[in-house]
Each structure stands twice: as structure tokens, then as C-alpha cells.
Design a protein that fits this description.
Blueprint: H1 2-10, H2 22-25, H3 28-62, H4 67-95, H5 103-136, H6 155-177, H7 185-209, H8 222-226, H9 277-295, H10 301-304, H11 316-326, H12 335-342, H13 347-355, H14 369-381, E1 401-403, H15 406-414, H16 425-438, H17 449-461, E2 482-484
């Protein structure tokens, strides 16, 4: 087991043989761990698998600021899960549909799903904290910028704010593109970007519906922050390590909700806390711009059809708010329409927003009294807040993760673009090369015995040239994808 962990984990990213294709080396750890499990059998395989996953988790925690490392171990966790699930299919082909599950799949697939989710969360957290938030949040290092005027936001200010949001998204996209496209990393990139946009939706929504506190000027003044106002800087601002990025500034937080980074005034394309028909129009335009970027430069079109239906939603809070502010309010008495809105906006939040709705030049009508009272009664009857207090939002709430299907994990193995579990000549050369790193073979010394034993184990335990092939039930991706972190 020592040689297997050394080969599969400790030297996983070390190029043993120059000139080998990245498509072969990217999933070498998953291939070596799965092959060892199969060869060891249940009794020795379970302790080895537990040790291997613990070592991977420890490496992820130690290198959580290394996005390349996180992506590497995520794609290997997905690939290893696919290998183990393929063993179930092989047993079913041999013994029929009533064949028992392979012990390795039963023992480790649930843990691998958890590991995928853990690594995904770490990557989202790092990208959000070190790339996106510093681009949009107020900080002690940034000079104060003028707040947008109350009432109707000037077109030029709105356009400038939207461009800054798009620039922040582009920064995230460029960082994720640096992870490459090998293995399953392309899927990871888009899921991380989707998670960042979901947090962005929550962040903007918070500043939209909540007016600034009494100690902050309209729109959230950065000058209060500079003078040591009621903002709380983030503790331990880590250093951004990629592409020569400078040290992250101390990000300020909204005193109304310490979970929320305080937005720089120039990021607001609306007047904070002012909810009108015109605000709804601004939101509609902003969501259209954000979606155009997501499906264009953001590349979301590549995976959109592969996501489950519940994942095919961009900026649901802002879109639902736009619909609410622009619709005739008496339509809210219809339960079906109200239910559609409440998919994204809880009823108590909806009532709170209607309490703050104001007539403007686009709609001079307020909220009918009977409509507001009925909605308040419905909220209380449903056990929700009556809308008298603002909702407390969690911008860094647990991410939703859609694990790639087993078919997706094994697709390249199935078509021959990547090796399977077989112990081929290339694998043997790599093992010999690792053994040669431990001793000077040119002096006639033999490689350590542990590598010879691993060679014998693999030679006897798996075929030299056979590949396990999955019978695909559906050519589309993500049908039946597991949704984690709801």
C-alpha cells in the first residue's frame, strides 16, 4: 500500500516520463487508486482506499489556496467515482441485473461524492473571496467614490456600474480558464462560475431591498469606511497568488448584515432601498446584460443543456424582483402567479418589498391596501414573517453542486481517449521511472522492493489490454445528476 499511495498521490503531479500527453496523466491518480482497489480485494482494499482518500483530503486542505491543485483532485475524484461505478456495470453484464454491487463502489462512491462537493466548495470560496469580492466591494484601500443620486439613476452611472460587474465576472472567468480544459475541468469551471453568479445575485438583491443605515449616506458611502465607521473588515486578508495579483485589501461589510461585503458606491446601478417600477426596468435590463455575458464570454452555453432543470436559472432573485415591481399588484391575489414568484422570493420577503414600494414617473399607483393586507395574512398563515423586517441573507450559503453523471465521468475512457484500468506498458514504464528516482539504477542498484511488489500486484490483478466499457443509457449529460448542497 505504501508504494501505491506514493505512486498515486504523493507523486501524482510529478512528470515521470517526458513527452506523455496530459490527457493520460491528468487522471493517473484515479486510475492507479482504482486499479489497486480491484487488485487488493475487499479485505485489504478498504483500508487502502480509506487511507488514500484521507491523504487526498489532507492535500486539498493544505493547498486550498492553489486553484490548480483543487481542480486536479476534483477531476480525479469524479474520475475515480466513474471507474468504481463501471465495476457495477461489469458485474451486471456478467451476472445479470440482480448482480450485487461491487464492494469498492459501495464503500467509496458516497465518500467520493462528498469529496467532490468539498473540493468544489473550497474552489468557489477561494475564487469568491480572492477574485470577485475585491473587485466589487468597498475597502479601506479604495478611495471614496460619489454615490449615485437618489431617484432615477442616471443612464451613464448605471452603464458604468454594469460594466464594473461584468468586469468582475470576467476576472473570475479568466482565472477559471487558467485551470485548463483537461479531464472534467471544463465542467468544474462552469459550475464554479454558476455558483459565483448565484452569490452575486444574492449580494445585489441585499443592497437593492435594504436602505442604508442611518450612519451611512445614501447608496452606502465609502467615506464612512475610511473614517473608521461601522464597517467590519475581513480578518486575515490572504495574499492573492495568481498572475501577480496584489495582496487582497481589507474588505468592508454592511453594518445591516455582517455577512454581506459592502459594495462600493460605483457598483450600484439603482438607488439603494428604493423600489419602484423604474427600478424594475433597470433590473430587467441588467439581468439581460448579465445573461448575455454568461452565455457569451462566460461560456455557459457549453453546459447549459447538460444541467438539470433546477440548475438552469441565472439571477433568479433579481429577475423575480423585476417582475414583481413591474406587474399589476392586484395579480398577486392569484395564487398561481404568487406561487411562481415565491419560487425565488419567500412570501415574507415579497411582503417586505411591497411595503417599501413607491410610485414613480412610470407608475403612479401604489399598492392597494386590500392586496397588501391579504398578502400579509397569507404570509402569517404560512408561518412566514409578516414582512415588517428585512430578510437576513447569506451570501456565502452552502453551494449547490451537480455531480457529473457516471456516463460523463467515463466518456473519454469509453471512446479510447483515456486509458482504462488495464495495466499497460505505459503504466509499467511510469512505475519503473518512479522506482528509478529512489536509487541510482545506472550504478546497478535495484529499485525499492515496494515498487516490484506493486508491479506484481497489478500484473496479476488486472488484464493487460482489456477496458471496461459502459453501456450508455442516454447520450445526454446530467440526466439524473446528483444535486448536493441544497
Amino acid at each position: 500500500m505504501a508504494a501505491a499511495t506514493e505512486f498515486a498521490i504523493y507523486n501524482a503531479q510529478r512528470p515521470l516520463l517526458p513527452g506523455r500527453q496530459l490527457s493520460r496523466s491528468i487522471h493517473a491518480p484515479a486510475r492507479r487508486i482504482a486499479r489497486t482497489l480491484v487488485c487488493l480485494g475487499r479485505q485489504d482494499g478498504i483500508p487502502f482506499g480509506q487511507l488514500a482518500l484521507r491523504q487526498v483530503s489532507a492535500g486539498v486542505v493544505a493547498g486550498r489556496s492553489d486553484t490548480q491543485l483543487l481542480a486536479f483532485w476534483w477531476t480525479n475524484a469524479v474520475h475515480l467515482r466513474g471507474f468504481l461505478q463501471s465495476l457495477n456495470l461489469a458485474m451486471a453484464e456478467a451476472a445479470g441485473e440482480n448482480a450485487p454491487k461491487h464492494w469498492a463502489a459501495e464503500a467509496f462512491v458516497p465518500r467520493l461524492l462528498q469529496q467532490e462537493k468539498f473540493i468544489f466548495d473550497e474552489l468557489v470560496s477561494y475564487v469568491w473571496t480572492h477574485t470577485f469580492v475585491p473587485a466589487v466591494a468597498a475597502s479601506r484601500a479604495k478611495p471614496a467614490q460619489a454615490a449615485l443620486a437618489a431617484g432615477v439613476v442616471k443612464r451613464s452611472g448605471q452603464e458604468a456600474a454594469l460594466r464594473k460587474w461584468l468586469a468582475a465576472l470576467e476576472s473570475v472567468s479568466q482565472q477559471l480558464k487558467g485551470l485548463g480544459r483537461e479531464g472534467h475541468v471544463n465542467t468544474l469551471r462552469h459550475q464554479v462560475l454558476l455558483a459565483v453568479m448565484k452569490r452575486m445575485d444574492t449580494l445585489i438583491f441585499h443592497f437593492l431591498i435594504n436602505p442604508p443605515s442611518d450612519t451611512i449616506s445614501e447608496g452606502g458611502s465609502s467615506s464612512a469606511a475610511a473614517s473608521g465607521g461601522p464597517f467590519s473588515p475581513t480578518p486575515d486578508s490572504p495574499t492573492r497568488s495568481q498572475d501577480g495579483l496584489q495582496q487582497q485589501s481589507s474588505v468592508l461589510h454592511d453594518p445591516l448584515n455582517p455577512n454581506m461585503p459592502m459594495l462600493d458606491d460605483s457598483m450600484l446601478f439603482f438607488t439603494r432601498g428604493v423600489l419602484t417600477f423604474g427600478t424594475g426596468m433597470n433590473l430587467k435590463m441588467a439581468c439581460t446584460r448579465f445573461q448575455q455575458w454568461a452565455f457569451g464570454e462566460g461560456g455557459m452555453r457549453e453546459i447549459w443543456a447538460n444541467l438539470p432543470s433546477q440548475g438552469q436559472s441565472l439571477f433568479p432573485l433579481l429577475r423575480s424582483t423585476s417582475d414583481l415591481l413591474m406587474m399589476p399588484k392586484d395579480l398577486l391575489l392569484e395564487e398561481g402567479i404568487r406561487a411562481d414568484l415565491c419560487d425565488s422570493l419567500p412570501l415574507g420577503t415579497l411582503v417586505y418589498m411591497l411595503n417599501r414600494f413607491q410610485p414613480d414617473d412610470f407608475s403612479r399607483e401604489g399598492i392597494p391596501y386590500d392586496v397588501l393586507q391579504e398578502l400579509k395574512s397569507a404570509a402569517v398563515a404560512a408561518g412566514a414573517d409578516d414582512g415588517s423586517s428585512p430578510p437576513i441573507l447569506e451570501v456565502e450559503a452552502e453551494c449547490t453542486y451537480y455531480s457529473p453523471t457516471d456516463d460523463m465521468a467515463m466518456e473519454k475512457v469509453e471512446v479510447g481517449e483515456e486509458p482504462g484500468l488495464e495495466y499497460d506498458a505505459d503504466s509499467e514504464d511510469e512505475l519503473d521511472a518512479l522506482g528509478g528516482l529512489c536509487v541510482d539504477t545506472t550504478a546497478g542498484l535495484q529499485p525499492p522492493l515496494r515498487f516490484k511488489l506493486l508491479h506484481n500486484l497489478w500484473s496479476a490483478g488486472v488484464p493487460r489490454s482489456r477496458r471496461i466499457t459502459i453501456q450508455r443509457e442516454n447520450s445526454g449529460a446530467y440526466p439524473g445528476a446528483r444535486q448536493l448542497g441544497l
